[in-house]
Amino acid sequence: MGQLEGKTAVVTGGSTGIGLASAVRLADEGAYVFITGRRKTELDAAVETIGAERATAVAGDISNLADLDRLYDAVRARGRGLDVLFANAAAATFATLEEVTEEHFDQTFGVNVRGTLFTVQKALPLLNEGASVILNASTAADNGTHAFGTYAASKAAVRSYARTWANELKDRGIRVNAVSPGPIDTPGITNVFGEENATEGRANLAAGLAIGRMGRPEEVAGLVAFLASDQSTFMLGANVYVDGGENQI
């Protein structure tokens, strides 16, 4: 029996990286997992990895409210409510203050802030008493990385939401907490740095960490599973770092 036996979970951005690793871990702990993402091919592959009997994929973009409605319609149809929500999906690109465009800002905040807000809001009618909501923040919110200001600001907003929502939902027995990963070796690194610069980017990130390497998605997934379970019932509004010491020492 896993820690989440009989529970229902949703993981946004669940087709690759931290989202996929977390979906796998939640399923291994006994949860039935709904995952969402924009690319159907990757979602189908993710369901195979998780196990078709343990997961359902619903293609969609969290910044599109109609897509969120379709996701939660699928959860509602299962008839067991929702016990775990990992609002993980995010967008990240580099742009200095001089380089920021309306499109860059709107995409980053549209997914990371607006998308996270409505991901959680639209889940409210389905969340069971004792449910756990986990928001994916980032160490970037704290460390002022060059050309990463818009992304960092969006993740600071996510961290702030975790505090407020924890306060607003506590009377329903719903816990809201955030995780703040440092540099994690996912396909998103290539998306941020570009194919030609990804190897150098990974090396530079690893060199800046006290632990001497980038993190693995599974290491974040372990924290997500802990926050989703009854092992963390005295945690509320917290922001837990999993960053190889990046913002700690």
Describe the secondary-structure layout.
Layout: E1 8-12, H1 17-28, E2 32-37, H2 40-50, E3 55-59, H3 65-78, E4 82-87, H4 102-121, E5 127-136, H5 140-143, H6 149-169, E6 175-181, H7 187-193, H8 198-207, H9 217-228, E7 239-242
Parallel strand pairs: 1-2, 1-4, 2-3, 4-5, 5-6, 6-7
Can you walk me through this structure?
This protein has 249 residues and is an alpha/beta fold. It has a single domain (8-241), classed as NAD(P)-binding Rossmann-like Domain (Rossmann fold), CATH 3.40.50.720. The chain has helices at 17-28, 40-50, 65-78, 102-121, 140-143, 149-169, 187-193, 198-207, 217-228; strands at 8-12, 32-37, 55-59, 82-87, 127-136, 175-181, 239-242. It has a 7-stranded parallel beta sheet with strand order 3-2-1-4-5-6-7, with helices on both faces. Helix 4 links the parallel strand 4 (82-87) and strand 5. The mean pLDDT is 96.
What class do helices, strands and sheet pairing give? alpha/beta
Considering the protein shown, what is the CATH homologous superfamily?
Answer: NAD(P)-binding Rossmann-like Domain
User: How many strands?
Assistant: 7
On the 0-100 scale, what is the average pLDDT?
96
- Record the strand order, biggest sheet: 3-2-1-4-5-6-7
Radius of gyration: 17 Å
**CATH architecture verdict:** 3-Layer(aba) Sandwich
Q: Look up the CATH topology.
A: Rossmann fold
Give the amount of beta strand, in percent. Answer: 15-25%
SSE order:
EHEHEHEHEHHEHHHE
Task: Write down the overall geometry.
Answer: globular
Spans of at least 5 consecutive residues with low confidence: none
Helicity level, as a percent range? 40-55%
How many domains is the backbone divided into?
A: 1
